[in-house]
Amino acid sequence: QQQQQQQQQQQQQQQQQQQQQQQQQQQQQQQHLMIISKVMSQQGLRSFLREVSAISERLAQLKLSNTITDDDNAVEREILSERACRLVSTLTLDMIGAILPDRLGLESMTAPMYYVDIYESEHIHACLFGFKSCNFMFPLHDHPDMYGFVKVLRGALAINSYTKLSHDEQKILKRTKWNTLSSNVVIARFEGITNRWHSDDCVYLGPKFGNIHSLTPLEDGAAFFDLLMPGYGDKPCTYFKNVIQNPKLKQACLLQKIAEPEDYYCQLLPYEKISKPDFD
Fold first, then answer.
1. Domains of the chain, each with CATH number or no CATH
2. Mean pLDDT over all residues of the chain?
3. CB-hemisphere CA count at 13 Å for 178?
4. What whole-number distance in Å separates Cα of residue 261 and Cα of residue 40?
5. Among 44-48, 64-68, 149-153, which stretch is predicted with the lowest mean pLDDT?
6. 217 near 136, Cβ under 8 Å?
7. Are 163 and 212 in contact (CB under 8 A)?
8. Neighbours of 98 (CB within 10 A)
9. How far is it, in rounded angstroms, from Cα 218 to Cα 83?
10. Would you give the distance in Å from CA 228 to the centre of its chain?
11. What is residue 63's predicted lDDT score, i.e. its pLDDT?
12. Is the per-residue pLDDT at 21 higher than 60?
């Protein structure tokens, strides 16, 4: 009986050792797959950044070109912006590789928003913004003479956008309707509200159309990828307050320039920003 018990114990020990070895092998395989997945995601992100950088560089060339007709210039700009839209729409959180705060992380945040700086050059600026809760709105602001692309990565957003009227249009309205406006008020057309979920394509905000906009989270923890072509560089970001509440679609609105809101600040999330040598 003692021999049988010893044999059983030995068999159990062997089985336990085999199970441990199998678990270790599975863990190693999972780690290996995770490393491969991370490398592939990083390669995908770098490939994406190279492509949108080339698009932005071409858009800058078109802006300075005197050899292309206005019509051809406009057609190519539209083709390039549509191509950038398609590229941004393919982005996923896995490709970016950022770890977003979970419910407990969101609850412990003191800032109303969180931020990840991904990549910046003379041609583009790529970053990620997120909201702690639905109780905060990304302030109304502009992207002066930039192409902007917003891709929701988690949750959902509502984007309110406005188009600044041309100098002549503003001049007519100031003369006929608002003849006592101060210089810090801009007349813009309300372009409506666009709702986007993480499964949807990106939203395009052009240098002219929809350039002034705000973003409101529809879910706690909502996050979005933000691509600017080019980035701000030395250009200032102007913040606004809509004087007219609940505007109607295509209605002319008065947007008053304001200082950067004091309650707007972000918590920086840990992330290995892509540098120029790595990008190349």
1. 101-279 (2.60.120.10)
2. 87
3. 17
4. 40
5. 64-68
6. yes
7. yes
8. 19
9. 28
10. 9
11. 85
12. yes
